[in-house]
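ugh ok fine here u go
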Amino acid sequence: MITGSTADSGLSRLREVRQALLRLHKILLEFERNAYERSRGRIENSYEYLQLVMWDPWFAWLHSISELIVQIDELFDADEPLSESDALALTEQTRHLLTASEYGSLFQRKYFKALQGSPDVVLAHSSVVKLLGRKTDRKAVH
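structure:
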């Protein structure tokens, strides 16, 4: 378990990561909405937009970030205190998710395209990455 000031630091960092992920998610939604409307026409109202975000394949790739945010929320709402391994696992999961690749998974390809197409996405991505810090040092096997 994380104890004392380490717990406060771990919780605080995870809360900051969560907030940065929320900002990134919002910016990605706006980016995709703009692309959707250029391709398919104007989204008429908030209800239609919500339905599209939840059910249309166009927005499905963004569910990965939504699910990660929910996992973080569930960790904060859990009856048990935050463990170091939980915090590390979510940090690594976030780092892995936000690895853009032109030839990777659907999420990685879409994220790559968003990073190429929007300075706002780049800035939000940078904020999350800074909060994540460097990858945990692991002993090399020789």
